[in-house]
Amino acid sequence: MKKNRIRRYLTRRAKEKLAVDESEKSSDVTSKPQEEIIASQQAGETDDDENAKTFVFEDEGHTFGNVLKSIISDDPDVEFCGYIVPQTTNSKKMYFRIKAKNGKPEDILRKGLASLCKVCEMANQTLENSMERYRSSHS
User: What transmembrane ranges does the database entry give (predicted)?
Assistant: First the structure.
């Protein structure tokens, strides 16, 4: 049952992230929190690089970051994809970096989140079908 809760959690979080309004993004590097500046510097981000972006996810950690990274890394339009969760802060933030070969990083992130939703829904359906078959054969 724990795996089912994790799948539901990942599905819910992916749908929430997919619905985030892009107007909240900040383009001024001086207004970024120190952790985001460090994450951007570690990833080699410059302000004039339109093919690379660092996205900040509130209240997220390695569970969400790792699965999203795995999905987005398989996209042929992605040159680099990675994330960090700084341990120096009290707030739980994940900094997710995408550098695109082709297209916009925002579009690649949207596509990755949509794929994550589909994967979670498919996993939930497979689990439900298996549980139903088990119940029917053992009753």
Answer: none
